[in-house]
């Protein structure tokens, strides 16, 4: 399939388990999936047209996600990988093979097999449901957050009580600071935060909670944040044992 930009696309219109299926934001279907190691993925769909997007499918989520799609009677239009994952295998390629969905990633993603490449501020639509993409680099240079009505899917850009590490390939602590302190802080406090990993035993948070209580969003200066992320934080984290294999597989 020929790779297209989001601008062109707009013109052409069982360890995984469902952890939460909240629908307080009327007008669209929303489900969260997780695997035991804490990876989180999402199903977003427009009930009127049946068009769906699958976001950050870890390989073990493929079957549960497909089951959910069929249960809701939906048609996958997009598989969105928010970035090139370094710590687990993406299920995007497998979902692409088994559906008619197009793989969506940021324009800087080094991954192959991408059908739609996005820039900051681009939008796609599932029927009448708009999906806006914000470039939120730091954990990875190609990371995008997915903005929905009432919610933002932040992947590793913002975690509950923390943020993604910046010591992996394509990570950058200065960019991470600007993502946290400028991009996310500019958004409304009431916006729900649904991250890509769960280390706190919580399905979601709000931006207001994170602005007030997240230590990574409350450094006094950029210099202090960068110094912590570059020098102190790596020593507090476990090594990523599948790093080379995951990157090799996810960049095909």
What does this structure look like?
- By secondary structure, this protein is α/β, with parallel strands linked by helices.
- The protein has a single domain (4-235), classed as Metallo-beta-lactamase, Chain A (4-Layer Sandwich), CATH 3.60.15.10.
- It is 24% helix and 25% strand.
- The chain is built from seven helices and 14 strands.
- Strands 1-8-7-6-5-4-3-2 form an eight-stranded mixed β-sheet. The chain has a six-stranded mixed β-sheet with strand order 9-10-11-12-13-14.
- Strand 4 and strand 5 (51-55) form a beta hairpin.
What keyword list fits this structure?
252 residues, alpha/beta, Metallo-beta-lactamase, Chain A, 8-stranded mixed sheet, 7 helices, 14 strands, globular
């Amino acid at each position: 399939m020929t790779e297209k930009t989001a601008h062109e696309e707009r013109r052409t219109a069982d360890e995984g388990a469902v952890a939460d299926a909240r629908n307080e934001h009327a007008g669209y279907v929303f489900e969260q999936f997780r695997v035991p190691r804490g990876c989180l993925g999402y199903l977003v769909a427009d009930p009127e047209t049946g068009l769906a997007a699958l976001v950050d499918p870890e390989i073990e989520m493929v079957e549960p996600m497909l089951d959910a799609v069929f249960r809701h009677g939906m048609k996958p239009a997009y598989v969105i990988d928010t970035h090139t994952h370094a710590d687990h295998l993406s299920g995007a390629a497998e979902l692409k093979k088994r559906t008619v969905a197009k793989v969506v990633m940021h324009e800087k993603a080094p991954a192959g097999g991408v059908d739609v490449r996005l820039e900051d501020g681009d939008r796609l639509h599932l029927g009448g449901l708009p999906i806006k993409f914000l470039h939120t680099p730091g954990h990875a240079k190609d990371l995008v957050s997915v903005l929905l009505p009432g919610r933002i899917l932040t992947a590793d850009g913002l975690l509950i009580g923390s943020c993604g590490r910046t010591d992996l390939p394509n990570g950058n602590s200065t960019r991470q600071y600007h993502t946290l302190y400028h991009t996310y802080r500019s958004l409304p406090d009431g916006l729900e935060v649904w991250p890509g990993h769960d280390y706190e035993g919580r399905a979601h948070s709000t931006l207001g909670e994170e602005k007030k209580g997240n230590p990574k969003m409350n450094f006094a200066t950029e210099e202090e944040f960068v110094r912590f992320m570059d020098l102190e934080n790596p020593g507090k984290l476990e090594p990523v044992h599948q790093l080379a294999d995951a990157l090799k597989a996810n960049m095909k």
